């Protein structure tokens, strides 16, 4: 069946049921279309399990971050309608009860991340009340739709509870009852009465779970996108019924709490009793994610510097969306396992060692082809070189050792990086960045100790005061102790030694003070001008060439020691042998897929077709218009020379001039107005293609003119 | 954020030192597009690796980018120059004066068939490059991404090839976005009616969408591939349509692969829609002509094919009485006589009645009115009320069709 038709735009193809593959395995596509089938199944399996682990981890992280917020909200809900239960006649309560308790939830601009938060939220609220409605702006263009959605959600959830117990409960279709607040109230009364009687009959065994009259929670997911009218109407109407219906509103806010007051007039906002809740910021979230996913030896897969930079740039300059970051991370994993045959070794160390043993000869060759491995071979002695290049078994042995080295390197790297960050994150002006991710990038990029920024930060570190230095050392000790690497035990001891020395200094400090006091006394004693000058000069001299105080000496020592740790452990990853197995480094692929620039691609294709069509005839400088270029390119370049409006006749003429320029240089002058049919047709096609691409549109300002729509190239 | 990110700050300071004057312009560009930001990076300063990364990006040339960079400022000036005055300086020549003014759709097609496709070998080479990615696309579709293709040239054939080579054994839906009367509703209808075999109607597209989502959630064995040619077409680019399509594509068992061509296509999507779509972008420049895509287009240069209007005219009139045909003829002739008058309002009812009486076609204005009602019902004429309250009659068909019609009538008689 063809998909061209003048009467239809949609075509469904259903293969006959017996032919239909029930569910094609994704793994099939993983190995399809590639020449190297080595371990593709295992690779795919590793990839999937790794991704699942990471996904679980990220969800866990978000849940943990949300916990505080959710707890606060839950307690707020409990408080909000306590008077409704108590039926107190207190005057303040009654005044207050006219207002609708409202929680304003400031979630930040990364709207796309909120989905999970709301899911967690409604789960958490289930413990308090079964009556929860989640509303989104796109479903509620009018108050009628809103009420419909609201009732639909509320009544459905109530039937879930009830229908289990009594079958004679008639489920009323939401179409038949009129959607009004009154019917919601009626419904609520009937439902609570029922549960009341039930709980009574059950002698209040289950009453602990749900209160007698659980509140009805209405969540507005994206408050800013609701129409003001709808919101106002809803609030005014429901405030009329607040005494019969314990309603609680939750506003999801992306910008700032001020938006409530700019969206709602005072008369409406005074009906709300608003309490503010602040969720964690997306920046914090990202830091936690990076900390838990990248700066850990739990996951064998690592991101290269440029890749990480691309992901962080997308986050910072485009969307602030952590979800997108994770999605990019997923893409990295898939790409890595898909394109790198040796990624089969990208797993936990013990598994990797086993897998090395079962590598095929082809895979061994792949190992030998790795640039980092070749560098490694060149550094070996001659006979070892031969063994590495010829004997597979020896190669496997070495590979195992190298993988272990790599693993140890990672463990040490992370702890030392954290230590260095402790030092650099509080320096003035943050020469190495405030966040640990910036430091991480800098370390991955090249030898960090060769950079200028590192030099300045060391100098600044040499001016730290004692108490800061001590707390930093303390923190470093904690980090190093908690790390699993045993190589760093020595470092821990050394740092502890520094700490004790600092404490010793304190004792000695008294004596020094005495010395300085006595010298001052000396100054006061001598009144003679000559002597005074002399002593002052002496003092100055001694200060200039002053041998450092013990504290300063110690400080230098500490900084030098940290420096030595950095030089030893923070070697960039691409200096390590076999780093290609665990590091994903092709940033261009990632950028192309996630952050594409369609306009630039289009512009390049039109302006310089040679970059796509590798034909020598097309090779020319971009300034002139070549007659050999595809029609659309010629037409495009001609249109760039025009102003706001383009005369079609002139354009056509210019086109035919360019096209015929080389073909028939001695063309008939007389037939200049009789354009060749085919050229005319080609011109028409090119112009309508440009119209499809959005460069021009027909204009009514002047007959046979089109308007140009783009300025500034691409 | 309390301070500017470290990287950005670094970059800015370097920039500032090197080219103080460009500082503000490069700074404002930063947030617009990452690509642009890369340009500013690679423009002058230290990062040769970045340049390398950019040039390894398939063929996008850094040359063009550099050009753009230097031209940037005067292109902006050009824009304001062109829009500063309402006067446009172009020649007054019109297509009327050319010998061959307009080609009909059919002759255009025939002519283009004669013209050989330039660089066919290179184009097939390009296509083969894209075709090698098919299995990767399938993999990524199954992992929850959706795929969007961009780049110059029709991507229809490429997608067709993808469909015929990989999707033969699975349920799939092809949507021609460029089809002039495509709607989201028709897409949803074909899913509910043909894929899910549901009989019945829905009150709104949102209800229909809910139904589809529900069905796909219930039955995890359901799988559907959706191919959309030209997702950015006139009919689908609306906010609501895109919202519905985005929600559809976010279902785990609906795999969407679409193509976009318009230069401003990415502006259709905000962050919320983008995250629903979960796009992976693929550059597939094919340089193939947009044959199908532009065939429905009403181009200025292509003669509006009057054949459909003409045949409907003759069919309707054949079924009428001789007198009625005469009446219509009168009106048509009068309109053709006035075709050079741009402010021709139409024939006033009174004048028309007079003429009809003279030709013995009607005997009272009531019979004429009855006749005109018949014409109006068949949309053969249009009535307009002028400024003086007089009723004017017009045939809403272009002159050439009308001439053809009269010629044909003459032949018949």
Automatic annotation (TrEMBL), chain A:
Domain Origin recognition complex subunit 3 N-terminal: 1-345
Pfam family, one: WHD_ORC
GO BP, sorted A to Z: DNA replication initiation
Domain Origin recognition complex subunit 3 winged helix C-terminal, chain residue ranges per copy: 599-711
Protein location: Nucleus
Chief subcellular location: nucleus
This protein's GO CC annotations: DNA replication preinitiation complex; nuclear origin of replication recognition complex; nuclear pre-replicative complex
The entry's keywords: DNA replication, DNA-binding, Nucleus, Phosphoprotein
Subunit structure: Component of ORC, a complex composed of at least 6 subunits: ORC1, ORC2, ORC3, ORC4, ORC5 and ORC6. ORC is regulated in a cell-cycle dependent manner. It is sequentially assembled at the exit from anaphase of mitosis and disassembled as cells enter S phase.
Protein name: Origin recognition complex subunit 3
Protein encoded by which gene: LOC101871583
Automatic annotation (TrEMBL), chain B:
InterPro entries the record matches: ORC2, RecA-like_ORC2, WHD_ORC2
A GO term, aspect molecular function: DNA replication origin binding
GO annotation, cellular component aspect: nuclear origin of replication recognition complex
Keywords associated with the record: DNA replication, Nucleus
UniProt key word Glycoprotein: no
Biological processes annotated in GO: DNA replication
Pfam families with a match to the protein in the record: RecA-like_ORC2, WHD_ORC2
Location of the Origin recognition complex subunit 2 RecA-like domain: 122-283
Ranges for region Disordered: 19-68
Superkingdom classification of source: Eukaryota
Localization terms from the record: Nucleus
Domain Origin recognition complex subunit 2 winged-helix as annotated: residue spans: 340-400
PANTHER family named in the record: ORIGIN RECOGNITION COMPLEX SUBUNIT 2
Function recorded in the entry: Component of the origin recognition complex (ORC) that binds origins of replication. DNA-binding is ATP-dependent. ORC is required to assemble the pre-replication complex necessary to initiate DNA replication.
Protein family according to the UniProt entry: Belongs to the ORC2 family.
Known partners and oligomeric status: Component of the origin recognition complex (ORC).
Protein name per Swiss-Prot or TrEMBL: Origin recognition complex subunit 2
Species in which this protein is naturally found: Melopsittacus undulatus (Budgerigar)
């Amino acid at each position: 069946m063809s998909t061209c038709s003048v009467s239809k735009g949609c075509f469904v193809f259903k293969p006959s049921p017996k032919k239909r593959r029930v569910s094609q395995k994704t793994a099939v596509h993983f190995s399809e279309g590639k020449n190297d089938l080595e371990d593709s199944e295992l690779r795919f399996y590793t990839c999937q399990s790794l991704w699942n682990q990471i996904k679980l981890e990220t969800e866990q992280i978000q849940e943990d971050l949300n916990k505080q917020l959710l707890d606060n909200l839950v307690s707020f809900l409990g408080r909000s309608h306590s008077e409704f239960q108590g039926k107190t006649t207190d005057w303040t309560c009654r005044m207050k009860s006219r207002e609708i308790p409202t929680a304003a939830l400031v979630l930040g601009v990364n709207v796309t991340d909120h989905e999970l938060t709301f899911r967690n939220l409604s789960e958490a609220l289930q413990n308090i009340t079964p009556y929860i409605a989640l509303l989104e702006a796109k479903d509620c263009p009018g108050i009628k739709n809103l009420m419909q959605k609201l009732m639909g959600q509320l009544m459905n959830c109530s039937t879930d509870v009830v229908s289990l117990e009594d079958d004679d409960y008639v489920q009323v279709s939401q179409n038949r009852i009129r959607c009004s607040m009154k019917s919601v109230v009626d419904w609520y009364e009937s439902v609570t009465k029922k549960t009341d009687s039930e709980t009574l009959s059950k002698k209040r065994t289950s009453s602990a779970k749900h209160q007698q009259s659980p509140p009805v929670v209405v969540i507005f997911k994206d408050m800013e996108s609701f129409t003001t009218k709808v919101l106002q109407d809803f609030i005014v109407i429901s405030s009329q019924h607040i005494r019969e219906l314990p309603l609680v509103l939750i506003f999801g806010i992306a910008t700032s709490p001020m938006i409530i007051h700019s969206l709602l007039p005072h008369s409406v906002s005074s009906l709300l009793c608003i309490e503010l809740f602040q969720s964690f910021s997306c920046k914090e979230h990202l830091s936690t994610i990076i900390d838990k996913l990248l700066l850990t030896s739990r996951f064998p897969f690592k991101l290269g510097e440029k890749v990480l930079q691309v992901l962080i740039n997308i986050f910072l300059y485009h969307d602030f969306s952590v979800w997108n970051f994770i999605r990019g991370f997923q893409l990295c994993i898939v790409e890595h396992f898909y394109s790198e045959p040796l990624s089969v070794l990208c797993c936990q160390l013990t598994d990797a060692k086993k897998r090395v043993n079962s590598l095929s000869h082809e895979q061994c060759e792949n190992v030998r082809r790795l640039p980092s491995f070749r560098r490694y071979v060149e550094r070996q002695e001659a006979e070892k070189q031969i063994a590495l290049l010829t004997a597979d078994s020896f190669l496997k042995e070495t590979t195992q050792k190298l993988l272990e080295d790599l693993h140890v390197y990672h463990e040490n790297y992370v702890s030392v990086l954290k230590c260095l960050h402790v030092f650099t994150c509080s320096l003035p002006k943050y020469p190495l960045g405030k966040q640990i991710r910036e430091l991480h990038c800098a370390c991955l990029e090249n030898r960090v100790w060769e950079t200028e920024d590192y030099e300045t930060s060391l100098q600044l570190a040499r001016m730290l005061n004692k108490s800061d230095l001590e707390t930093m050392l303390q923190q470093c000790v904690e980090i190093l102790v908690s790390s699993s690497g045993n190589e760093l035990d020595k470092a821990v001891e050394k740092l502890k030694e520094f700490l004790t020395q600092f404490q010793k200094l304190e004792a000695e400090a008294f004596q020094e003070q005495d010395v300085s006091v006595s010298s001052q006394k000396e100054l006061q004693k001598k009144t003679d001008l000559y002597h005074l000058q002399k002593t002052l000069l002496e003092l100055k001299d001694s200060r200039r060439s002053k041998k450092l105080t013990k504290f300063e000496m110690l400080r230098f020592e500490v900084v030098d020691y940290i420096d030595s740790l950095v030089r030893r452990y923070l070697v960039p990853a691409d200096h390590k042998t076999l780093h290609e197995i665990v590091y994903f480094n092709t940033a261009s692929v990632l950028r192309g897929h996630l952050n594409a620039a369609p306009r630039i691609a289009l512009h390049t294709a039109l302006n310089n077709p040679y970059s796509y069509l590798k034909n020598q005839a097309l090779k020319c400088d971009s300034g002139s218009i070549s007659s050999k270029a595809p029609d659309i390119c010629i037409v495009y370049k001609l249109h760039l020379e025009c102003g706001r409006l383009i005369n079609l006749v002139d354009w056509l003429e210019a086109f035919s001039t360019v096209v015929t320029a080389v073909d028939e240089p001695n063309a008939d002058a007389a037939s200049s107005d009789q354009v060749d049919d085919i050229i005319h047709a080609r011109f028409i096609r090119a112009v309508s293609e440009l119209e499809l691409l959005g460069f021009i549109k027909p204009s009514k300002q002047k007959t046979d003119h089109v308007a140009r729509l783009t300025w500034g190239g691409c | 954020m309390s301070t500017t990110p470290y990287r950005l700050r670094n970059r800015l300071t370097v920039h500032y030192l090197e080219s103080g004057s460009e500082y503000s312009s490069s700074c404002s560009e930063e947030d617009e597009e990452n690509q642009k930001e890369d340009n500013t990076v690679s423009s002058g300063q230290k990062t040769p690796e970045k340049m390398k990364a950019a040039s390894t990006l398939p063929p996008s040339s850094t040359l063009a980018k550099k050009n753009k960079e230097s031209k940037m400022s005067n292109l902006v000036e050009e824009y304001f120059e062109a829009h500063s005055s309402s006067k446009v300086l172009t020649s007054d020549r019109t297509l009327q004066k050319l010998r061959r003014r307009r080609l009909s759709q059919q002759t255009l097609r025939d002519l283009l068939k004669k013209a050989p496709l330039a660089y066919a070998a290179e184009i097939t080479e390009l296509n083969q490059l894209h075709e090698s990615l098919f299995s990767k696309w399938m993999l990524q579709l199954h992992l929850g991404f959706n795929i969007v293709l961009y780049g110059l040239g029709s991507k229809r054939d490429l997608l067709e090839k993808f469909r015929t080579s990989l999707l033969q054994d699975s349920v799939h839906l092809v949507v021609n976005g460029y089809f002039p009367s495509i709607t989201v509703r028709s897409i949803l209808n074909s899913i509910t009616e043909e894929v899910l075999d549901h009989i019945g109607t829905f009150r709104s597209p949102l209800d229909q969408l809910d139904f589809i989502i529900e069905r796909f959630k219930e039955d995890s064995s359901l799988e559907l591939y959706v191919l959309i040619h030209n997702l950015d077409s006139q009919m689908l680019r609306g906010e609501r349509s895109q919202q519905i399509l985005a929600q559809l594509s976010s279902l785990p068992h609906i795999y969407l692969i679409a193509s976009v061509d318009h230069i401003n296509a990415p502006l259709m999507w905000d962050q919320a829609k983008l995250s629903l779509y979960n796009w992976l972008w693929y550059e597939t420049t094919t340089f193939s002509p947009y044959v199908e895509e532009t065939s429905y287009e009403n181009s200025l240069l292509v003669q509006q094919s009057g054949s459909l209007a003409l045949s409907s005219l003759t069919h309707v009139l054949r079924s009428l009485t001789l007198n009625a045909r005469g009446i219509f003829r009168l009106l048509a002739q009068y309109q053709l006589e006035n075709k050079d008058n741009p402010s021709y309002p139409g024939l006033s009812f009174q004048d028309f009645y007079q003429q009809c009486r003279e030709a013995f076609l009607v005997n009272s204005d009531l019979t004429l009115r009855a006749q005109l009602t018949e014409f109006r019902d068949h949309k053969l004429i249009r009535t307009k009320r002028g400024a003086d309250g007089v009723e004017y009659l017009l045939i809403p068909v272009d002159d050439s069709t009308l001439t053809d019609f009269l010629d044909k009538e003459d032949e018949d008689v």
